[in-house]
Amino acid sequence: MNEIRENPVLERIPVDGPCPRCGAEELRRYPVVSEGGWFQVVKCQSCLYSVDREPWSRLGPIQLLSDSL
Amino acid sequence: MTEPARLREISDDEFTAAYGSDRFTSAVILNRLRYAVEHMSTGFMREAFSPIIRDWYDFACTISGPPERGYPMAVVSNSLVVFLGTLGDAVRNAVEEYGPENLSPGDVLICNDPYRGGTHVNDVCFIRPVFAGGKIVTFVNMRAHQLDMGGTVPGGFSATKSNVYENGLVIPPVLLWSRDQPVRSTFSLIFDNTRWGGMLLPDFKSIHQQLKLGEQLVLENIERYGLDAYLGTLTYACDTSAERMRDAIALVPDGDYTGSALIDADGLDDTVDYTVRVTLRKRGQHIEVDLSGTSPQARTCINCGVLDAKTAVGVALTMLLDPEVPFTSGTWRTIDLATPPGTLVSSLPPDGGIMMFWEASGAVVSAIFDALNPVLGEKGVAGDYGSTNTHNASGVTAGGTPWTSATQCGGEHGPWGATKEGDGDSYTVLFFLNNLDPATETIEHDAPVVMLRKEHAIDTGGAGEFRGGAANLKDTLWLSAANHYLSPFRTKVPSGVGANGGKAGPNGAMWFFPPREGARELLGTSAEVYAGSIPVAGVLDPDSKAPDPEGVYHYFASRPVWRTEPGTVLRCLTNGGGGWGDPLARDPQRVLADVRNAYVSVEGAARDYGVVVVGDPHHDPEGLRIDEQATAELRARR
Ligand SMILES: [Zn+2]
């Protein structure tokens, strides 16, 4: 009686426009964790240039109920 | 995007403008801060009551900078790497949630939630703000494993718990000391929900004193060199790591590289195994690590959180690319971890319980080695023994005294893989742990157990120009009835993978041997011995029950608790370390020494290395010699 479990894949949302560094039309928005914690980035998928990099919520995808107090 | 100026090349004036001090003074301050965390560590180890602190060194100390600079973790002790890797984020997350404005001099903030700070609930973070001029200027921190944090299994080390509620007590950021006064309600919360509080209390008091010591040493530096120089040094330390890691990454060819590692099963049943998959995308000085395709979070608490996965990425890249890079938050400056939520290595509450976290994040290390070793060629590093194969047991002696034995009598210690520098070490801990080995005398003192064997197993290092470390073979005789929890996770495929053409080390297993008539003599190690065993774990021959890669898998939690009668022997054999380079290129003199030292048998020397050794290693070890001609002929035929 095993449930079918798909392996999760990170969603990368397409963003219009070319990469200002390499010109590739491959910008995507998604969260990353790095030095300084979580960020929502818009990155070129060809050269990894970060067009935009904003701090995201402290625990990434996890929200605390106590944050709603 | 301009490249940052190189630290060696900026002028002295530029350095002082950037870091508030001259180069020499910054180096002095940094060394004094490294001394501070080591001094805190030594003090704690000297005073600790808990065996896991005293004998395993299961703690770490760090220094982080203030909130307005982003809590840079600039200084770490020489200790448990999985703690160091997560402490930077743990301090930031705990302090931000509690509110830095709510902290006062003399406070100790604690937090043990794996999702907020990494690792598992037994590892409590102790965070002390250091004030200068009425402001928080730094945090001195310690994370230390507490013997018990509640939950359904004494001590907690078990793969069988299904969610965070069964797992143990979760402590959000709360004060344990307020202005150096104990907060009684927090102590009661812990003591009312955990076992063995009598051991926790004196260790908590010692931690409080070590944090005060760290605070005092930081303040002495600020008084002597000034606040600007102190804060600048924290920035400089992180910038140094970032620059060295950027340089190391730049040496890897641009490309997309994939790798994987397998975990045998979780604690529910053996119908599901778990794969960690990584894709490393490397461009210039940047690496993005994507864990997409990794198995969903496990049904029991063998998961790790994303901060542990991040630690594993930092450790793997440091080990492979430049082991000299100082480990700070700057290590990750040009590394992004991109992971879908809800995998084995990015699990979510409440169902994705986290206990055996280092096993899951260790698989991330293995997967990164798997991805990069083929690219790195001779810079590749062979794999280690893969799992701490943790053993925990408890019971009551015939005289009625309760006892417990935690992480001492399984396959906790084992070998590393070989590198271009030489053979793999044989009896250490996993690549990213860095602990001590408990002394046999204390193990036998604390529980009704006799350590019969703790030895290198022959022919278990992966063959190579440099040989993998030997697997560890450990036999323990249990004098009382006992309840055992066993957690070997990596027996299906080799963890000790080869590098640069080296061979993988063979896999280990675990067995119980029922009490024998009046028997206290050693169990043999030949294949026939295993027929009389009850297999616990491993891939074994169906008839002989000896290790056999073509055999059948035995599931470690087929009995969630293994109950044994007095006189039972537990045998744990770890996986072997991987070899580096072509085995036929190994210097025959090294093979001869291996036969002399019982790393390799006479048969193994011929089979694995093409070296013909003549003589009797047991009865005339000094008389061993190489048959040069037979060796040349044998190697020529390969
Ligand atoms: Zn680009």
UniProtKB/TrEMBL annotation, chain A:
Recorded superkingdom: Bacteria
What protein name is recorded for this chain?
Uncharacterized protein
Taxonomic placement: Bacteria, Bacillati, Actinomycetota, Actinomycetes, Pseudonocardiales
Automatic annotation (TrEMBL), chain B:
Which Enzyme Commission number(s) are listed?
3.5.2.14
Keyword set, alphabetical order: Hydrolase
Q: A Pfam family matched by this chain, by name?
A: Hydantoinase_B
Where is the Hydantoinase B/oxoprolinase domain positioned along the sequence?
Answer: 22-583
Specify the enzyme's EC class, one word: hydrolase
Provide the coiled-coil residue spans.
Answer: none
Give the taxonomic lineage as stored in the record. Bacteria, Bacillati, Actinomycetota, Actinomycetes, Pseudonocardiales
Q: Indicate what this protein is called per its UniProt record.
A: N-methylhydantoinase B
- Give the top-rank taxon of the lineage listed in the UniProt record for this protein: Bacteria
- Select a single GO molecular function from the record's annotations and give it: N-methylhydantoinase (ATP-hydrolyzing) activity
From the record, give the transmembrane residue ranges.
none
